[in-house]
Amino acid sequence: MTAGFIMVMIFLLWFFVPYKKGSKSYGKRLHESIKKKLSSDGLGYLNPTLGFIKSRFNLKRKKKTYQTVYGSINGIYTEIKIDMEKSQSCVTITSKYDYRDNISIEKENITSKFKKQLGIDDCLVGDKEFDDLMLLKASNPDDFMLFFDADNRKTVSKLAESAYDFSISHNHFEMSMLYADVCDNKSLAVSKIKQIVEVCRRLGMLSKKENLEEVLQQNIKNEPVPEVKIKMLKLLAKYFRIENSKLQQQLVSIMNTDSNQLVQITAAQYVSNGGETFLLSQLKSDNIETLTAVINALRKNGTTKSIKPLQSLKEQFESAFKNLARRIDKTIDIIQSREDMTRLDGGISMHHAHETEG
After folding, report:
1. Nearest to 96 by CA among 82, 77, 115
2. By C-alpha distance, which of 232, 174, 182, 170 is closest to 207?
3. Distance CA 143, CA 203 (A)
4. pTM, whole model, 2 decimals?
5. Most Cβ neighbours (<10 Å): which of 180, 247, 274, 277?
């Protein structure tokens, strides 16, 4: 056996035999591993006949293997594509669903952050941490207030933070993650798949526009961020009959027990019996933000009952500002007198110095 023949055999082996992570055997093991893990976690059925492997050569003659599994997971059509390379694997999960309106949810980038500062092309939920992370667009921004309750914000935020690439549109959720070894991280990958499928399921349910009042009421009940809860309360009043007895009970409860004063004031303006009385009681506050919120609420729903307390508050402010104005004038006079005395003292000292020299 000549040295040349041995070299040719080595070359052929190098050319046609893929490295371990990119090999078809590895892909098949991974395919079966992912399916088994999904099945054991109760995520429905992935058709085993639909998985396949594709290979291609690039200019450097290094083989790259793609492993794709697809099927229905809890009623959501899902594709799991694994792009295997030597150093790492990229797992792309795409789940499809139907949503009535156009929406777009992406991670913030430099351009979008600049636009956000200018108030361009962005919808805000009211949760600063979430709004700073995500870029939201929709033909009907109110849909986001229905969908992004505390749990969904937390789920989407965690998925976005762990993703190499991330996007949600009106018909699919796509996310890519990088792993050194997918088999070693299959439990983590399957956990992400479960979360994505659940987000798509909830979006699909919301698209049907069924039981939206109950959904929003539940979101308000469990909402921990005051700014978000205020926006949800306003949305509830905008679209639904707040005279409903069940809804009135919830509003009264929020008005009397919520830990945030601005949330209480927002709820009170929609309470039919006792709301105005509660708002008038808040006029005793010495907090300007609170007083402003109360005055705005009374402007929308106040009756003649509010006129006298508001006039009294106005007189208090006018009196307070007059006293403040007098204090300011007196302070100016004191400062000016002190300055004049300083100049006078300086002049006397200089005159005394000249007399001494003479």
Report:
1. 77
2. 170
3. 10
4. 0.74
5. 247
